[in-house]
Amino acid sequence: MKTLFKSKPRIPAELVRHTRDLLVYVDANPKPRDGKRDEKMIELCKYIRELKFILYGDNKTEPVADACAQLTHEFFRENTLRVLIVCIPKLNLEVQKDATQVVANLQRQQVNSRLIAADYLEANTDLLDLLISGYEDMDNALHYGLMLRECIRHQCVARYILESNQVNKFFDYIQNPNFDIAADAIKTLKELMTRHKSTIAEYLSKNFDSFFTEFNSRLLSSPNYLTKRASVKLLGDMLLDRSNSATMVRYVSSKDHLIILMNLLRESSKNIQTEAFHVFKLFVANQNKPPEIVTILIANKRKLLRLLDDLKLDKEDEQFEADKAQVIGEIATLH
């Protein structure tokens, strides 16, 4: 007879409470191969999957806004988010994946038209410290990275990371010998440095020298291809953003920065050369070039013209060719 009836679905708040209780148990009983713990882990896996279903739906079912709001409210009301993040290393891989997606989705959920995750994280910044340092955990770095990027959607989170001087940690993480972790850290740094325009503009204005000294020496000068290519592209993204126009003018007025970009133009990798060109052209286009910039460009005129003439993309790009022609013309007229 049991098969004739479906089990009554749990209400979201109840589901969150049960999940929290199981997480607390798992956290307090980390010993593997414990029969009771294994049972709890199986149960926890099922509950977290149910949470994920409520938030994401599936191929046949769309998420229900009211259920998502109830779930989200309960998650932050009793610190379940904290317990879940802290327990990530103690979960098995499949549960980790689902848990990571739950944390990520909660950053986008509104309750009474408010992103309550932002308020919670602003009041619990130690969780952000935990997510950032998660890049040092080789086994779980990608889970922490995904959650951190979703948290950076909140301006208060980005501001905290920037103002707490934790940007430099990413310069280390990006050079991790593990390719996947390094690539993930690059994605996170890009999100941090490009999403919130006003916050980044203010940060770069206040920390111009310290930030670019580290950025240039540790990333642009890195012997690692991935690091160098991604960092010069990120540099271009930052400088070409209108919100950072003051920073861009300041950057292209430095002879040291010009020398770095000229060296990047000489790289054997066409990808790095191309990304470097998009920054180099800003030095040339500057209508108020400092005398030392003009002097360097004139001294290297022949080499630069030859190098730029040889720089060609695999696919035809009219805008690139137009930019290149303009740069070549500008350099050719310098004297």
Overview in brief:
The protein has 335 residues and is an all-alpha fold. The chain is built from 20 helices and no strands. One of its GO terms (biological process) is intracellular signal transduction.
Query: How is the main sheet built?
Result: none
Cα radius of gyration in angstroms: 25 Å
Q: What helical percentage do the residues reach?
A: over 70%
Shape: elongated
DSSP strand content: under 5%
Overall average residue pLDDT: 92
DSSP, total strands: 0
Distance between termini? Answer: 94 Å
Low-confidence stretches: 1-8
Give the helices and strands as they follow along the chain. Answer: HHHHHHHHHHHHHHHHHHHH
Pfam family, one: Mo25
InterPro entries: Mo25 (IPR013878)
GO molecular function, one term: protein serine/threonine kinase activator activity
Family: Belongs to the Mo25 family.
Summarize the SSE layout with pairings.
Blueprint: H1 12-28, H2 35-56, H3 65-77, H4 80-87, H5 93-106, H6 116-123, H7 125-133, H8 141-151, H9 155-163, H10 167-173, H11 179-194, H12 197-206, H13 208-220, H14 225-239, H15 245-251, H16 255-265, H17 270-285, H18 291-299, H19 301-310, H20 318-332
Give a quick set of tags describing it.
335 residues, mainly alpha, 20 helices, elongated, MO25-like protein At5g47540, Mo25, protein serine/threonine kinase activator activity
Q: How would you describe this structure to a colleague?
A:
The chain has 335 residues and is an all-alpha fold. 72% of the residues lie in helices and 0% in strands. It has helices spanning 12-28, 35-56, 65-77, 80-87, 93-106, 116-123, 125-133, 141-151, 155-163, 167-173, 179-194, 197-206, 208-220, 225-239, 245-251, 255-265, 270-285, 291-299, 301-310, 318-332. Helix 2 packs parallel to helix 5 (93-106), helix 11 (179-194) packs parallel to helix 14 and helix 14 (225-239) runs parallel beside helix 17. The longest helix is centred in the first third of the chain and has 22 residues, at 35-56. The radius of gyration is 25 Å and the shape is elongated. Residues 1-8 have low confidence and may be disordered. One of its GO terms (molecular function) is protein serine/threonine kinase activator activity. Belongs to the Mo25 family. One of its GO terms (biological process) is intracellular signal transduction. It holds the Pfam family Mo25. This is MO25-like protein At5g47540.
